[in-house]
Design brief:
The chain is built from 16 helices and 8 strands. The chain has about 500 residues and is of the alpha+beta class. The chain folds into 4 domains: about 40 residues, no CATH class; about 80 residues, no CATH class; about 160 residues, GAF domain (Beta-Lactamase); about 180 residues, Hypothetical protein af1432.
């Protein structure tokens, strides 16, 4: 071994492949290669012994050659003793015998070549099939990677994996187990191909990680971060606890593959697949593919965790900002939360997506944040506001948008500043700060306008008492189609009637 050159175990397999190819030059059948000594098993060097069985055609060729030599010698002696007998009988007989042996040897060789050609064709077909399979799997990994990166919650990730498994791969069943928070056990998170009975067995099973004596394949794969290909359950019976073996038998498992889900050396869970009706054997190439897949799943799970952490931080910041406004004036304490409740209720009535609802929820909590820039003498004035004070109060929506635009709202939250800053726009264009009209006002702002209006008129303020609920509902209906989008008003009325009738 040359200095600086590091041998790897797989290179032994590569060399054996080279020797196999070279040996076929001398024979049409595959040779037998014995790796007698290996440096990775304590040997001084790698020693290979290549042998192959002689073909039938080579035997008949040798027999033809020996016969031709014997006949030539016999003819040499015979021509001296009896030239006429040699020419009339022995020479034709010898020529015929050698020709017949040569023809038979040729037929044998031709048959061997034909068989070798058929074998080569079969091998080529298998290689082509494997190449196509590898190509399809590469496309699959690319598609699943693209699909998973779009999902920011665990359930969506697992649903995507199950869908692509069922539509694109040849495995009958599969499952994903993830470690719980304290890494004491593996918990079933997703599966496909299992009957209800088998899924119940999996969900009720305990895969302990906190016991050193645990010897189940799932546990060992998780702890050692190693994949396992089990060709037959009987092969590992002695290595399993009776409980683990019984679990596998109850599922009807025969052969299966288990791969760890790892992200940056941290074990997150395992993925396992098996075939029950599919006759295709599980191979090393399946392990290679599934390890690539679990790597992608591990990245996606980590992305979701980071997203969840960031989202929790954002929600904490938003709650703190909303509480800051409420703390300035005890009279309006809870206003933002109540407006948010109404706005989310409207969203539910008109069937908005979860992401859209979340954006409107955040905008509702922060819609009055601009009041932090309004003087207390105006904000908490007990009497009516004069025109200049009223103009000052009106600036709070514009200030809200300006302040929130400096907060790093990204992704789905990018529209929060604009929605929050437009909650005083009116459907007929009579609102502020921009005087927007109709659908020029974003849907979120139209929803927030109705929620804010109703909460404000039914709550006590420094300069007035709350309006009775019945009167407030009548007033809201009167303003439907003018100040407010009638569809939003109807959605609010439906929500309010259902929710508050139920509470009362």
């Amino acid at each position: 071994q040359n200095p600086g050159v590091k041998e790897m175990p797989f290179q032994c397999e590569n060399r054996m492949g080279y020797f196999e190819a070279i040996a076929t030059v001398f024979n049409h059948t595959l040779p037998s290669i014995e790796h007698k000594e290996c440096v990775f098993k304590g040997g001084q060097r790698c020693v290979y012994e290549v042998t192959w069985a002689a073909s039938d055609s080579s035997f008949w060729k040798r027999l033809r050659n020996y016969t031709a030599a014997i006949c030539a010698g016999a003819l040499g002696v015979s021509v001296v003793i009896d030239p006429s007998l040699t020419l009339s009988t022995l020479l034709p007989f010898s020529a015929l015998l050698v020709a017949m042996l040569g023809a038979y040897a040729y037929r044998k060789e031709l048959r061997e070549l034909r068989n070798a050609n058929d074998s080569l064709r079969d091998s080529t077909d298998k290689l082509l099939h494997q190449a196509n399979l590898n190509y399809d799997r590469a496309l699959y990994l690319n598609s699943i990677g693209s699909a998973l990166i779009k999902n920011m919650d665990m359930d969506s990730i697992f649903a995507e994996v199950n869908l692509l498994f069922e539509e694109s791969l040849h495995y009958d069943r599969g499952l994903i187990l993830l470690a719980n928070e304290d890494k004491s056990k593996l918990i079933f998170r997703s599966g496909f191909g299992y009957s209800d009975k088998h899924q119940d067995i999996i969900q009720n099973a305990f895969f302990r990680l906190d016991k050193k004596e645990s010897r189940g394949v799932f546990t060992v794969s998780f702890k050692e971060q190693k994949p396992f290909l089990i060709s037959s359950l009987n092969d590992i019976e002695k290595d399993l606890s009776s409980k683990s073996y019984q679990f596998a038998k109850e599922l009807g498992a025969k052969s299966f593959i288990c791969c760890p889900i790892v992200y940056e050396s941290e074990s997150l869970g395992i993925l396992a697949v098996d075939n029950v009706t599919n006759e295709a054997p599980l191979l090393q190439s399946d392990i290679n593919f599934l390890m690539s897949l679990t790597h992608t799943i591990g990245i996606s799970i980590n992305n979701v965790r980071l997203f969840d952490k960031k989202e929790k931080q954002l929600k904490s910041m938003i709650q703190a900002m909303a509480a800051t406004i409420d703390a300035r004036d005890p009279m309006t304490s809870g206003h933002s939360e109540k407006v948010t409740e109404f706005a989310v209720g409207i969203c539910g009535e008109i069937g908005l997506s979860r992401n859209h609802i979340e954006v409107i929820r955040v905008a509702s909590l922060l819609h009055d944040y601009g009041k932090i820039g309004i003087k207390d003498s105006i904000l908490m004035k007990s009497g009516p506001l004069d025109p200049s004070e009223r103009d000052e109060i009106k600036t709070h929506s514009e200030k809200t948008e300006k302040i929130l635009s400096h907060v790093n709202f990204d992704g789905i939250y990018q529209e929060v500043p604009r929605i929050a800053g437009s909650h005083h726009e009116r459907y007929d264009g009579s609102g502020y700060p921009r005087g927007l009209k109709g659908d020029d006002i974003s849907l979120g702002a139209r929803i927030l306008a109705v929620a804010d209006f109703f909460e404000a008129i039914t709550s006590k303020r420094h300069y007035r008492d709350p309006m009775p609920t019945g009167e407030a509902l009548v007033l809201l209906r009167e303003k439907s189609g003018t100040d407010f989008d009638s569809k939003i008003v109807n959605a609010f009325l439906s929500f309010y009637d259902t929710e508050y009738s139920r509470r009362n």
